[in-house]
Amino acid sequence: MSPDAPTRVPGDAPAPDRRRFLFRAGGGFLGLALGGVWAEAGEMPDAILGPHFRPRARSVIFLFMCGGVSHIDTFDPKGNAHAGRLMDAIGFGDNLAEMKRPVIPCHRTFTRHGRSGTPVSDWFPHVGGVVDEIAVVRSMWCHEGNHFPAVIETCTGHRGRAFDHPSFGAWVSHALGSVNRNLPTFVNIGRPSSPVQLTGGYLGAGVSATPFQAGPVPVPNLHPPEGLPAVERDRQMEALEVLNAEFRARHALQSDIQARTRAYELAARMQLSAPEAVDFASEPAHIRSLYGLDDRHTEEFGKQLLLARRLAERGVRFIQVCHAGGGNGGWDAHGDMKSHEPLCRATDKPIAGLLRDLRQRGMLDDTLVVWTSEFGRTPWSQNTTGRDHNPKGYTAWLAGGGVQGGIVHGATDDVGYRAVENPHYYSDLNATILHLLGLDHTRMEHPALGPVSRLVENGAPIRAILA
Amino acid sequence: MTRGFSSSREATPDFLRTFDADDGREPCPRRTRTVTAPQALFLMNSREVDRAAGALASLLRSEAGEDLSRAVDLGYRRVLARPPGEAERARALAFLDNDPGRLDRWAWLLFNLDEFLHVP
């Protein structure tokens, strides 16, 4: 087709500022490489970086508890020998002034479960039932002591937003590409704490998360307005293709435009594939009940995890499920630890159901399930019966996908304040996930930006928990 | 959306969230930018775009009457701030098929153009 002569060249703007120039230069470098392949193959290439070696996991279901789960009340029992002890609480959460805080008692009872005997609190009885599948890492730490900075640090591997670092799922999506071309590679279910958890950053908008909802409408606006005949929409889409062609050719090297082309293609395919992916009609009653769909307390998260399994089954690489997101996050129990109780009840049975279901389907061997939050909670309170933020020591756990089940790795000190035995900076968790996906964490960097863009700056896989 | 327009994500409309409205809680030197299939679906299928297309079509009909060439010219100027190229005009007239009733469906096309959404 002959392109129209533009009367105004979009993009013919005043000189870009220096920062934008540097970003564009970076984007353009990668864009150039991609653009060439794209032009040859007629589509964007999928896998960019890997895998570097044989993967143990095909998909990751990443469960993020927004707000900071108390490790002390869930997976890291400390007893109450130190209750009342005054501790130095400078620099924690919002405490900028020098102050002492008393350790508060933990009211949970812990039971040793399974063959492994891993202790789990009475808030997670169902997860206790599958604890032989789980590797509990009790010695996580990160730098940031407040929600948004910590969410950014944990999900991008970098502190602060100044350089537009991509989220972890976007890196995985970028590195490995999709298995199922009818569904996105990186899906987010549930409300995140921050939009940073969805961003593709400098990897380009095409690898950002696609939000899915569990329910009859997985993605809003999935169907054309009523009364529009299908043949008419086809005609519109054909005309759109032609009218866009010239603009797309002119901006072919911009990741946004490439991503938009793909977004429309994926949108068209999702109109057919997404309703099937979220249609639970084929799920028998015992499976629904396994996820707690028959109980109003667990129904919502249960549906989200059942959807996560169905997406993993269909080849979605990275499924991020955010629980109690929005604002600081529901798990932010400053006032009273009892606020954890309904959240634990809402997630316990669905999580255990997910692990059992994956196991019985033979999917747990190549599906990695990760449970984490941005930080843990302190042994002390702020003159309440709740706990403050604690980035210096907290718990994350992993199951399936090449992880050894039924083990506990690392430890916090005697009150649960600081990771002291095998401490792992959060990057180690990210490196572990990458390792299980067959990716070398030291090679996860943007070709044009170099080491400054590295997803895992320092850190290494937690080898002690690998199967 | 201007950062800080809404301090609460509770109050942020879904469609703004679909298009990366920031939560305004962290210093944000560069806005998070995603290009996702749900955004494409919003522009293709949402009630908002359907209504906007209807409103634009009524406006064009009232301003240009039966003169579809003029309607096409006005539509491009209003939505893209430039006149259509000759090939674009010809294609639009072919799509409209001498029927001002088809302006609704043509207005949808304008809102779905890359050039409408994307400022390079």
Task: Characterize the structure shown.
Chain A has 467 residues and is of the alpha/beta class. Chain A has one domain. Chain A has 10 helices and 17 strands. Chain A has helices at 18-41, 125-129, 147-156, 168-176, 230-250, 255-278, 285-290, 299-313, 340-360, 426-436; strands spanning 59-65, 86-88, 100-102, 110-113, 118-121, 134-141, 186-189, 210-212, 318-323, 367-372, 376-377, 389-390, 394-400, 407-409, 411-412, 419-421, 424-425. In chain A, the strands form 5 sheets. In chain A, strands 1, 6, 7, 8, 9, 10, 13, 14 and 17 form a 9-stranded mixed beta sheet that branches. In chain A, β15 and β16 (419-421) form a beta hairpin. The longest helix of chain A is centred in the first third of the chain and has 24 residues, at 18-41. Chain B is an all-alpha fold. Chain B has 2 domains: 9-34, no CATH class; 41-117. Chain B contains 7 helices and no strands. In chain B, α2 packs across α3, α3 crosses α6 and α4 packs across α5. The chains are: A alpha/beta (467), B mainly alpha (120). At the A-B interface, α3, α5 and α6 of A face α2, α5, α6 and α7 of B.
Tell me about the largest β-sheet of chain B: none
Report, as a whole number of angstroms, the end-to-end distance of chain B: 18 Å
What level of helicity do the residues of chain B show? 55-70%
Shape of chain B: elongated
Strand content of chain B: under 5%
Order of helices and strands of chain A: HEEEEEHEHHEEHHHHEHEEEEEEEEH
State the shape of chain A.
Answer: globular
Radius of gyration of chain A: 23 Å
Q: Biggest interface, which chains?
A: A-B, 65 and 52 residues
Q: What percentage of the residues of chain A does DSSP assign to strands (E)?
A: 5-15%
Distance between the termini of chain A: 57 Å
What is the mean predicted local confidence, pLDDT of chain B?
A: 84
The chain-level mean pLDDT of chain A equals 87
Query: Sheet bearing the most strands of chain A, described?
Result: 9 strands, mixed
List how many beta strands of chain B DSSP finds: 0
Uncertain residue ranges of chain A: 1-45
Poorly predicted segments of chain B = 1-10
Q: Given the structure, what is the number of helices of chain B?
A: 7
Structural class of chain B: mainly alpha
